[in-house]
Structures are given as C-alpha cells and as structure tokens.
Amino acid sequence: LQLWRKDPADRSAEQEAMNKANKERVEKWKKQKIEEWKKGGKLKEKYPKIEDLKKWMQGQVEKARKRLNIPKAKSVAYKRNLIDDNNPVVTWEDQQRINSYNRLSQRMLEVEDEIKALTKLSQEINDAKQDIEDHLEDDACKIRIGETYIQVSNEEAEDFVDEKGEQARSELKERIDEKGVLVSEMEALKVLLKGKFGQNINLDPVNADEDALIPNK
User: Fold this and answer.
1) For 201, which of 119, 134, 178, 217 is 20 to 30 Å away at the CA?
2) Which pLDDT tens digit goes with each residue over 121-134?
3) Are 37 and 27 in contact (CB under 8 A)?
4) What's the longest Cα–Cα distance across the chain?
C-alpha cells in the first residue's frame, strides 16, 4: 500500500496551525486555573502565591509534552512523492487523536495529584478523629472556619470531622472513577495510534497496568 505524500508547503502550514491551536488551548487552560485560584479553595491552599501556581502550571505542561512524544521520521529517499507503510503519513484525523490523547494525559496528571491530596486529607481527618476521641476533657477542641478558629465541644468536633471525612471520601471516589474513564479512553486511542504507527510513536503509559492492556502490533 502506498499513499501520496502531501506537498511540503501544505504540511508545514497544517503543522503551524496545529501548533497555534495547541498553544491557544494551553493558554486557555492556564487562564481557567488562575481564575479558579483567585476564587480560593483547594488550589489556593496548595499554592498560596501566584508564582507557585505558575510554576506548577508550567510543570504540568512540560509533563504533558514529555508524555506524548513523536520522534522524527527516519531519513528516507522518497521517489515520485510516494511513501510506504513503514513511514505512514500523519493525517489530520491522526493529529486529532494525538491531541485528544494529549488532553486526556494532561487531565490524568491533574486527577492523580488530586487523588494523592484527597488520600492524604482523608488520613489527616482520621487522625484528627482519633485525637478527639483521646481527649479526656470536653470543650478541648477548636475547628477552623476560613481563617478563624472556634472552640467547640468534643461532640461538635466529631460531627465536623465526620462531615469533612464523608466529603473527602466522596470526592476521592469521584476522582478514582474519573481516572478509570480516562484510562479507558486513552487505551482506545493507543490501540488506534499504535496500530498505525507502531514503534514510530511513543505514548508513555500513565502506569504499567495501563500499558499491559494494549496489544502489541
């Protein structure tokens, strides 16, 4: 099977348009995160300074770029503008699949960070509940609401911790479920991309289990 090779000028223009679109998506994502950070919440608690947030965002972008790496094609002497199956053309549809995989991989990094943070929070909540139970004196606890600490009874503190624990467990379950969906979608794209490009494309696995589910082509 042979495919007609696109004119180099057309391919260059198409690649430039794709690079511009990818850059616009990254900038849009950064703006969304900054707006989310300004509203407070977990993101601002984790990154109190804007410099810390920007450093994290840049790290996330770099991780995503490293996870999706397409090496340059080997030098081949093309005749009559034809290429063969060993060096398949990256079509517009292929590029869309690669872009989709890249976005899913980026979200996977965020979800994994959130799962780690929620797991840690759940453990801290369990530790706090144990500390409350170990208190012999009543009214020996304080809870934080915003930036203010309020003294409460041990029973009220336990109710507060239970509520926060339930909330953390619920959010953790949501993130774990989302990770499962992301893995499934990434696996489907990997089957298509690996099936066409084989060793010419490197889609780094999110984890070893995921890569094991992809058949060798």
Assistant:
1) 178
2) 999 988 888 887 77
3) no
4) 88
**Tokens coding 191:** 């089957």
Q: How confident is the model at residue 110 (pLDDT cuts 50, 70, 90)?
A: very high
Question: What pLDDT is recorded for position 67?
Answer: 54
**Joined tokens for residue 109:** 């990094």
> Does residue 80 contact residue 5 with C-beta atoms inside 8 Å?
no
With CA atoms as reference, report the closest residue to 102 among 212, 198, 18, 6. 18
| Residue with more model confidence, 36 or 112 | 112
Interatomic CA distance for residues 44 and 172, integer angstroms: 19
Structure tokens at 88: 């398949």
> Which one-letter amino acid corresponds to residue 105?
S
Whole-angstrom distance, CA of residue 36 vs CA of residue 54: 13
